[in-house]
Amino acid sequence: MSAPVLLTGAAGRIGTVLRGGLPERGWALRSLDVVPVTDARPGEEQLVADVTDLVAMEDAAQGASAVVHLAGISGESTWAAISHANIEGTYSVLEAARRAGISRVVLASSNHATGYTPRPAEGLLREEDAPPRPDTYYGVAKVAMEALGSLYADRYGMDVVCLRIGSAFPEPTSTRMLSTWLSPADQVSLVDAALSAPSPGFAVVWGVSANTRSWWDPAAARALGYEPADDAEAFAAALIVAEGEPDLSDPVHRLVGGQYTLPSFDAEH
Ligand code: 15L
Predict the structure, then answer these.
(1) What is the pLDDT of residues 9-33, one digit of tens each?
(2) Is the pTM of this model over 0.95?
(3) How many whole angstroms from 166 Cα to the centroid of ligand 1?
(4) What is the CATH number of the domain that holds 12?
(5) Number of domains, the chain
(6) Which UniProt keyword terms apply here (predicted)?
(7) Whose CA is nearest to atom 4 of ligand 1?
């Protein structure tokens, strides 16, 4: 068996999907979370640790071939909580990987790193045309994640792939997600590509399915070898009956971060 990939946040929503799908793509997993994962998959190693504990993470990283870092708070919260779990946590994961001699890290960034970026008047939005423009403290932590990834790639020669994930849910539940959905199968394909791409260096790519209504340029992710299979359009009719056609002058549809950009959006969401 090949050396395992260390998967942080393994008990979470995306972690659970990856634990199901990555082994079928040939990846052995060392699953880590701050809470125990409730089921054991054949061949899977399991660890309980807090990603902000650098000593524990150094131990966890020993002998791993790569890291997929998902752990952290998955939406808006207080500055104290976000800066600890999401910024300190990402630092600790990257530093532990470096000390363990791991040369590839895949980071779960988010569209909210660039949430206030408007939809282009025409054409698709490339990652390079969406520099940091966070919509929340959560988004600020994703900007810090991408910056830390850039530092570790440039300074230490590591391959660091940042996935600006859209809406990773079993199915789209709003008309915004007709553009931003990343299906479970495509979550697996995207991470598989980020782990497999030869020498990506530092890369930032959108994490989105092949949605008919997507306005985020898929070219950079595809260049890694990602081949999305799903399209949220299959859910469009029912969602449009419920919500109406998306109004592109509404910030929810006009800005990358959707409802996170609204003044009324806060840690309660
Ligand atoms: C995210 O980054 C969140 O983790 C998720 O809960 C959704 O809010 C998603 O973005 C989204 O933009 O739909």
Answers:
(1) 999 999 999 999 999 999 999 999 9
(2) yes
(3) 6
(4) 3.40.50.720
(5) 1
(6) NAD, Oxidoreductase
(7) 74
